[in-house]
Amino acid sequence: MTLSFLIYKVILVLVIFAITLLVATYSTYAERKIAAFLQDRIGPDRAGPFGILQPLADAVKMFMKEEMIPSVSNRMLFIIGPGVCMLTACMTGVVIPWGPSMNIGGTEYPLQITDLNIGILYLFGVISLGVYGIMIGGWASNNKFSLLGAIRASSQMISYEVAMGLSIIALVMTTGTLSLGQIAADQPGAHWNVFIQPLGFLIFIICAFAETNRAPFDLPECETELVGGYHTEYSSMKLGFFLFAEYINMFISSAVISTFYFGGYNMPFIARFVHDPNWLAVLGFVFLFTKISFFIFVFMWVRWTLPRFRYDQLMNLGWKVLIPLSILNLVVTGGWMMRMEIYHFFIK
Amino acid sequence: MQALTNRSKVVAKKEMTFIEKLYLPAIFSGMIITFKHFFRRKPTIKYPEQIRPFSGVYRGQHVLKRDEIGAERCTACGLCAVACPAEAITMTSAERKPGEEGLYREEKYAATYEINMLRCIFCGDCEDACPKEAIFLTDRKVDSLYTRKEFVYGKNILVESKENPISLVKRQTPQVKEFKHHVEFAHNQTYDKQKKVKNSSH
User: Which of A252, A281, B154, B156 could tie A99 with a disulfide, CB 3.0–4.6 Å?
Assistant: First the structure.
């Protein structure tokens, strides 16, 4: 572990952190623009050209708002809630491979903060911690609506994490690794996992919608029923943190979907034209971000198309449809992988 | 029972087919519909930069007209106030003194004339009621102001200035003018004409 390596890692961490925040910031702008365009409107266009400075204005607004902590709330937990939410959202970006390794002066510089050999496990651990922020925030508010929202959020996340995990197990079986770097590297060209695991992908993306609390699974914060759900009592930047964490989660989910099922930084035919590893790394980064942008767009597209589920429908879908389907997917995948053994077993 | 129209549909609660139960085809068709809207032309009018053209007969802020020599046409008869369904118009009358012929057209004139713009519903009944072609609604908007008192417009705002007469071309179309040539409106002809009429009747 040399000093230059350490400096490189620190820079990488800071850059990834900055990019995450930037993408999340502009996701809010994109959300408003896309929502407007899907509804035959124009959307924010006052701040700067095409309203490009709108997120800045929003941030200023958020900071200038009065900060209120209800007197009956649990003060410490009330403050910790959004912090936990934000922290877990930012932590997930660590294991995502943002591009193939760069090679400067004979040294390898991977564009991944750390390639944990249990990357998927880490990812799931951190994502499931995210519910704590919502739960703590909702409970500490001492408000019926907040508590209801928080309970909905936690039960929704717990039920959909099961199906999500099962769909990922099938992916792990085919890839044979838990490391995200390895999964991305194993999908060169157009050998994307989505062609091997189409059903798994479908289950995963549905669960990703539920995990990020976005429509049609946005029951924890449904305005029409629960005022604001778990962040009813929040104001100022604490509310901003909750909303912002959602956009970071969306960004990370898109990155994870791209990495798991759409080859991450890989693009068909690129190896024929570009041979320099540094250029490949830069292009890989661009490809990955194109894919991520597409999935963020899909997230928003779905949000502004579909109505919200009813709570019992949500639970029905989670437990009675997605989990059996993912188990079926698991069995079929396993059967296909062991087809020769099964064949020999029955022949002999 | 026989249906009154053939528009009613019989609602049948039937089991959904497997494809319908999947929901995915419906979701995708819905997404395609919203995606088409993404590229539609937006009907938004960006207000401060673009202003939607008013209709020619838009009924906005009132004006009290002057006649050809610049005398106020209003004679404080009160017909507009009677006609006003919102009771927004009040006035007090005064008698014209000798030497004020250039200021007021008739022997009686409105010393004060107030329209409460918060009460006014811009129906244009005052315009119809006016026998002297004195009050008209124009295509100007009433400004937004800070206090309620300011919305009571007096003569200082309502009477048009001699230098900048308010154009009524859009509302007073040829058809309207032709209509006003009707014998009932003979008293509304120009000052000179009316004098002639008076002289001849004497």
Answer: A281
